């Protein structure tokens, strides 16, 4: 049960601010939305939270820890998972192999057992594959387990990314435009999965472009434009906010 | 004695710089490590040599033929080894492997052409004129070499920074996608780029062939290995860096051979490469583009 | 049959030696490390093994153990400073290592006997010894490949950003890859010393680096069949081309270019991929039949 808190977070690129002092809170068990027009700096925020980009100013807190300076590997190991806006799978590997990769932070077999191919390493592999199959079943993809991930449809690939992130059993899940390019019914089935994940106590930060999807799913929404927060609140309040409408429609 | 060695170092080093220049030019624009650059250099030297042997051409024409020969070989190399990979958007690993393959072919053909012999330019290709200057023995050839190298560098910089073609090349180096949108033809840019790179290597080949009085099919390998050190030390993709680092390596090597031992020169030069990579992978004059390639994210 | 076997023994031995070198190159490439250090590690292994036996008169198995250990150690020593470098920079740093080792073996005459190399090393390893070594290394490669380490290697090679966001430590796995590469090449060098009576520095130079890289590129970088297939092809091919001695290198070069341009995943990985696709297609059509029936 850990919440994510961003305090006055900022990042410059070549002296120009891409994200300029935002404050945000994503509590455990809730789905928090971060929306904004293209180029608002949403993905920059995600990359800072996950340690891929260094922070220019401000702090990132996760639970009781200050994780501003932590690197990407450490952040993943303490339970921050993400999906990528442009799908990033191992395309030659099978669906199952892609999902199993998500369990990495839970692997317990030592390096030597792995190097020498000891039975414990083999047992762990089979156990992880079984766990991955359970995820595949939830996402209705059991039949595709042995298919190379690269050859599957866009919607399927998005789901594989999601399963890989869930395999990490995260405390914080960052979803970077998870339903981009999906039709409404596909998006709805994913929405149900997100609600279930949140119900288990995971903090979800949903970064989206699709307003309708965010409105239907989130408890609290932050709106970003040109690197600044311009509004926040419940979906209803944000939806009526003239500044948001202006940012989206362009004045 | 020390001054004399320094002078020799500057001469050798400026040719290293010339060789490395063509190498770093291609890396700067296409991010290709051209492992066949040594073979292009060797074929440039061959072109100059055969022109002299068969047609008895004078030194300047031999240089010109070496340049054109190297340039043409380099362009063909691009078409055969790199263009198919560029089209596919293959990773940098692929172009290294492909150019190693091309290099094997080019070396082997040269070996058969010459039956593995070491060949020489005729003695009268360049008159032996020696000046005595403050106790230094300076050969006319040495002066000419340093002069040619500096002229080439200035010419190259002029071409890249003062002409339309150079702007196109630099624009492709910045972003190939954007350049295409601006109507720049990448085919023409790569043609010029590889021709220039090969021509510089060809001139270096003829010069080295005359200075060391030997032309043979393996003559490119030591140059290529040194060029790696030069470009890393100077900063990958940096033109002034290549020249300065070339001079530096030439001097270090000459001094090591003169005062320590010939065998130590290689160990020292490559330890230097290792050290630079560890301490400052962007080199002396490296650009931020190179930095991004180290950290990737 | 026996005479056939006899006359080809040196070829088999060479193929096995090459397979070991290819495994050393393969393990780094699989982890996404562009190391060209295999020739350097193998040279170190070869010299350690030869010196242990000729200078100190110790039994050959001590030489083998030492060669593996020192190979692994040098791999580890290289891995630590190289952790910051990627791609081309890794390739150049390891290339420098090969050149440094080459200059040392050429110039430290008191120990290495310089350019003449070390001669009259007793032959203690034959075809069987090499076969056993290849079998053991293959087992290890298979075990590691299907373990957590192999999975991490695959993710790192394909996409380092994904790897770190899954909590995979790139530094740790690159370290493991370097150590394995060093150990395997050290073993290969030692066995070569004990198999070929003599060693010289230039065997372990730029040429070896190129051929070993070619084997793995041609064979494939993912499946453990890759290095085996690549080593066999590039060992046997020159024999088949014996009549065209002069064009051997040309063919090798052309093969290298053709394989990276037209078969970028290598022979073994391409074939395995095609086989898997066919099996999936068959399964799907079978499932459809049962549905319609």
UniProtKB/TrEMBL annotation, chain A:
SUPFAM superfamilies, A to Z: P-loop containing nucleoside triphosphate hydrolases
Keywords of this entry: ATP-binding, Nucleotide-binding, Transport
Span of domain ABC transporter: 4-251
Coiled coil spans: none
Superkingdom per UniProt: Bacteria
GO terms assigned for molecular function: ATP binding
Name of this protein: ABC transporter ATP-binding protein
Taxonomic lineage: Bacteria, Pseudomonadati, Pseudomonadota, Alphaproteobacteria, Hyphomicrobiales
From TrEMBL, chain B:
Transmembrane region(s): 6-29, 36-55, 61-81, 93-113, 143-161, 191-212, 224-252, 258-279
Listed Pfam families: BPD_transp_2
Localization of this protein: Cell membrane
Domain of life: Bacteria
Family annotation (InterPro entries): ABC_transp_permease (IPR001851), BCAA_transport_permease (IPR052157)
Chief location bin: membrane
Keywords: Amino-acid transport, Cell inner membrane, Cell membrane, Membrane, Transmembrane, Transmembrane helix, Transport
Topology in membrane: Multi-pass membrane protein
Family: Belongs to the binding-protein-dependent transport system permease family. LivHM subfamily.
Protein name as it appears in the record: Branched-chain amino acid ABC transporter permease
Species in which this protein is naturally found: Aquibium pacificus
From TrEMBL, chain C:
Main localization (coarse): membrane
Ranges that cross the membrane: 12-29, 36-54, 60-80, 87-109, 121-142, 175-194, 206-237
Keyword match Transmembrane helix: yes
UniProt keyword Nucleotide-binding, yes or no: no
Compartment(s) of residence: Cell membrane
Entry membrane topology: Multi-pass membrane protein
Pfam family, one: BPD_transp_2
Key words, A-Z: Cell membrane, Membrane, Transmembrane, Transmembrane helix
Protein name: Branched-chain amino acid ABC transporter permease
């Amino acid at each position: 049960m850990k919440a994510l808190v961003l305090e006055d977070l900022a990042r410059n690129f070549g002296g120009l601010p891409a994200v300029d002092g935002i404050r945000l809170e994503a509590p455990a068990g809730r789905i928090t939305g971060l929306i904004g027009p293209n180029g608002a700096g949403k993905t920059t925020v995600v990359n800072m939270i996950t340690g891929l980009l260094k922070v220019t100013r401000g702090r990132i807190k996760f639970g009781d820890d200050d994780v501003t300076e932590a690197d990407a590997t450490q952040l993943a190991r303490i339970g921050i998972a993400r999906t990528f806006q442009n799908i990033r799978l191992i395309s030659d590997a099978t669906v199952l192999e892609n999902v199993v990769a998500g369990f990495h932070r839970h692997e317990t077999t030592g390096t030597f057992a792995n190097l020498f191919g000891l039975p414990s390493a083999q047992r762990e592999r089979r156990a992880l594959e079984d766990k991955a199959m359970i995820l595949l079943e939830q996402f209705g993809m059991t039949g595709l387990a042995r298919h190379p991930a690269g050859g599957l449809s866009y919607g399927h690939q998005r789901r594989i990314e999601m399963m890989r992130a869930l395999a990490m059993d995260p405390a914080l899940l960052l979803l970077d435009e998870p339903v981009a390019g999906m039709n409404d019914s596909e998006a709805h089935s994913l929405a149900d999965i997100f609600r279930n994940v949140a119900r288990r106590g995971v903090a979800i930060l949903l970064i989206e472009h699709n307003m309708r999807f965010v409105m239907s799913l989130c408890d609290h929404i932050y709106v970003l434009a040109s690197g600044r927060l311009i509004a926040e609140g419940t979906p209803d309040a944000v939806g009526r906010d003239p500044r948001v409408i202006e940012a989206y429609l362009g004045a | 004695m020390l001054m004399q060695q320094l002078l020799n170092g500057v001469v050798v080093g400026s040719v290293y710089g010339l060789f490395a220049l063509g190498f770093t030019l291609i890396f700067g624009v296409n991010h290709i490590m051209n492992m066949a650059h040594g073979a292009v250099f060797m074929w440039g030297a061959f072109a100059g040599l055969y022109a002299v042997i068969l047609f008895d051409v004078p030194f300047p024409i031999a240089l010109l033929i070496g340049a054109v020969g190297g340039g043409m070989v380099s362009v063909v190399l691009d078409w055969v080894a790199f263009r198919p990979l560029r089209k596919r958007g293959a990773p940098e690993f692929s172009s290294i492997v492909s150019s190693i393959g091309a290099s094997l072919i080019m070396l082997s053909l040269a070996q058969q052409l010459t039956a593995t012999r070491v060949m020489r330019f005729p003695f009268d290709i360049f008159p032996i004129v020696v000046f005595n200057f403050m106790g230094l023995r300076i050969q006319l050839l040495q002066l000419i070499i340093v002069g040619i190298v500096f002229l080439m560098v200035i010419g190259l910089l002029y071409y890249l920074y003062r002409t339309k073609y150079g702007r196109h090349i630099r624009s492709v180096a910045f972003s190939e996608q954007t350049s295409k949108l601006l109507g720049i033809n990448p085919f023409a840019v790569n043609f010029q780029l590889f021709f220039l790179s090969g021509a510089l290597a060809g001139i270096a080949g003829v010069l080295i062939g005359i200075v060391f009085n030997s032309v043979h099919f393996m003559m490119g390998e030591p140059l290529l290995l040194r060029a790696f050190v030069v470009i890393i030390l100077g900063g990958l993709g940096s033109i002034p860096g290549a020249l300065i680092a070339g001079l530096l390596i030439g001097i270090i090597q000459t001094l090591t051979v003169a005062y320590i031992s010939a065998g130590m020169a290689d160990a020292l030069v490559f330890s230097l490469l290792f050290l630079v990579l560890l301490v400052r992978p962007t080199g002396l004059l490296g650009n931020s583009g190179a930095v991004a390639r180290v950290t990737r994210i | 049959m026996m005479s056939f076997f006899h006359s080809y023994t040196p070829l088999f031995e060479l193929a096995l030696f090459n397979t070991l070198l290819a495994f050393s190159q393969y393990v780094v490439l699989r982890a996404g490390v562009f190391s060209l250090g295999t020739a350097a590690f193998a040279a170190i292994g070869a010299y350690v093994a030869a010196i242990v036996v000729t200078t100190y008169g110790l039994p050959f198995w001590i030489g083998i153990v030492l060669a593996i250990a020192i190979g692994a150690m040098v791999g580890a020593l290289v891995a630590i400073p190289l952790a910051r470098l990627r791609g081309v920079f890794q390739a150049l740093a390891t290339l420098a290592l090969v050149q440094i080792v080459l200059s040392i073996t050429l110039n430290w005459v008191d120990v290495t006997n310089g350019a003449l190399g070390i001669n009259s090393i007793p032959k203690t390893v034959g075809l069987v010894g090499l076969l056993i070594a290849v079998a053991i290394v293959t087992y290890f490669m298979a075990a590691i490949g299907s373990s957590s380490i192999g999975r991490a290697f695959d993710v790192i090679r394909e996409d380092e950003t994904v790897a770190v966001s899954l909590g995979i430590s790139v530094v740790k796995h690159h370290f493991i890859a370097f150590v394995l590469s060093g150990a395997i090449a050290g073993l290969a060098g030692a066995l070569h010393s004990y198999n070929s009576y003599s060693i010289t520095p230039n065997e372990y130079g730029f040429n070896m680096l190129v051929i070993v890289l070619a084997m793995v590129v041609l064979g494939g970088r993912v499946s453990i069949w890759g290095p085996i297939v690549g080593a066999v092809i590039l060992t046997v091919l020159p024999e088949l081309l014996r009549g065209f001695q002069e064009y051997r290198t040309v063919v090798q070069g052309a093969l290298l270019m053709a394989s990276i341009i037209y078969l970028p995943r290598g022979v073994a990985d391409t074939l395995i991929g095609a086989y898997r696709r066919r099996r999936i297609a068959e399964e799907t059509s079978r499932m459809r039949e049962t549905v319609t029936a």
